[in-house]
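Data availability (excerpt). The following record was deposited with the supplementary files.
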Amino acid sequence: MTVVTLTRQATYNPDVTMAAFATGLFNHWGVGDATRNDGIMVLVLYQDRAMRIELGKGYSGAWDGVAKTVIDRSFLPKFRDNYYATGILEGVQDTVDTIAVPHSAGGEAPKGKGAPWWLAVIAVPFIWLFGGNWIKDRLMRLRKCPQCGQTGGLRATRRILQRATTRASGSGERTKYCTNCDYRMVSAYSISRISKSSSGSSFGGGSSGGGGASGRW
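Predicted structure:
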């Protein structure tokens, strides 16, 4: 299972629908097992206020409606209130519980609550792509401030000092601060070198035929 967060689709491919864009990403990376085609990709375009759950070819069309239910139930309510990190966490948990685990067990029409989320995460690992730092910084507010001990006030911002190239890694500056007190900490971080190769699969060689569901907020 792969979670992708991007700012907007236009930066990458403005000439196709969001569904086609998601299918293209899914197939380029080869999400899921090549034989079972059981991969799942959650795509969030937060400036476009749009998202999609893309399903591998191993899922029948009946799962498209389940994906739409998960989007409407767990992702969109939080996104509408600008709680993106929480929406992604709760939505991914619901996706794993409601789609991935029942499907891996051979179920075709999931009923009731799925397996515990921690068991699902162990069984179906997921990877944060592109927006990993964005998610990590927003999860900061769930932690206690090391100075005042309050929860909900921690924030983080990033500033690129040197952009990465195909020949060298880049660098940036991350500022962590608390809105409840005067806590502030600045640290450096590295940006991975841009890979020259864009071909081949990064995952298990799975593919999607365009199944899944989309949502906007």
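Summary of structural features: Helices lie at 18-29, 62-80, 84-104, 117-123, 132-139.
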